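Re-run requested by the PI after the first attempt was lost when the workstation crashed. Everything re-entered from the original request form. Ligand of interest: zinc ion.
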Amino acid sequence: MRTRAAVAFEAGRPLEVTEVNLEGPKAGEVLVEIKATGLCHTDEFTRSGADPEGAFPAILGHEGAGVVLEVGPGVTSLEPGDHVIPLYTPECRECEYCLNPKTNLCQSIRSTQGQGLMPDGTSRFSTLDGKPILHYMGCSTFANHTVLPEIALAKVRKDAPFDKICYIGCGVTTGIGAVINTAKVEIGSRCVVFGLGGIGLNVIQGCRLAGANQIIGVDLNNDRKAWGERFGMTDFVNPSEIEGDLVGHLVELTGGGADYSFECIGNVNVMRAALECAHKGWGESIIIGVAPAGAEISTRPFQLVTGRTWKGTAFGGARGRTDVPKIVDWYMQGKIEIDPMITHTLSLDEINKGFDLMHEGASIRAVVVY
Ligand code: NAD
Ligand code: AHE
Ligand code: ZN
């Protein structure tokens, strides 16, 4: 079939909206009509050329929601008409990783997924003159139709709106999951969240959900103060406006250091500050941000010797097929908020405007509705 997609032909260039060819699902695969997709900073990270794994031409996008149109041979858990959220962290429930309760990082298709290919080593997308186009994070939600492995789809309830639940495909689950699954924040905790964008605000609402006493937000953009407060932030710090050292300031503000800190930017200097503002003896710092190729973190080992822990999290530690339907339920029951964070709704033709808004700091989440 043919479908419309925003194609990243080269690193650093705007996406090009065009018709592409899409082959039908092979064994174990599913054809999905994408109804809506969010634009995450990770899409921009890859589009810009900063991703060491980035390969082109590719159809980016990994934060979608849609409807199953067709299933390939052997697919048993999904049927046409099912509503689904694509999973860049699949859940095969069989690999060594899925069988270990300590991780959500299913590895059953990770190597082909990282190369932009389906598990059989080929791509379903091509240009109209027959040149292959790569998949992205196994999802490619910047196409109106896409093919995914069955294990990379969470089946969700049919009454949930696509233009909101697409955000659960990355930002919402990553932020809330980092608090609940990775940090396991306890009632009464003191938390510091660095970067109040599409991920950081979900960390804030996760901390509120977990019953944290203090939730400090840190951002260079003062407009993010009101945003943080909207979701439970108790204090705001703009590093460019404080006198002296940021870490010292945060340690004082928390009365000795954070029980939990979260880096939601992708800046290795901020990652260091996030670790070092954690409380001596027990503070944990969770890295969520994706840093550019070649960037490395550093700190004095004494920071770890004296009881601070550095952790990282992908997709908020969530096991997608199991956890994502539950997060959709939380949204539908009013336990978590999504609607106010979706600040812009765009057509596919306007997708590059979504990246401009991200750079300007004008959007929390822009969503493309097909
Ligand atoms: P975003 O652009 O919406 O938000 C980033 C925020 O950080 C902005 O509010 C910006 O003003 C602020 N900021 C930038 N530099 C700063 C600094 N030096 N100090 C303080 N604040 C600063 O991005 P997002 O979509 O929220 O994504 C955040 C990061 O998380 C990205 O690196 C993204 O790739 C990553 N991410 C990781 C996962 C994962 O599973 N680990 C999932 C999704 C996104
Ligand atoms: N390709 C990058 C790494 C990118 C990365 O860390 N991705 C996160 C998800 S970000 C979603 O917005 C992730 O899930 N990582 C685990 C994995 O297996 O990719 C690089 O540096 O090479
Ligand atoms: Zn993302």
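Saved to the shared folder this time. The longest helix spans residues 171-183.
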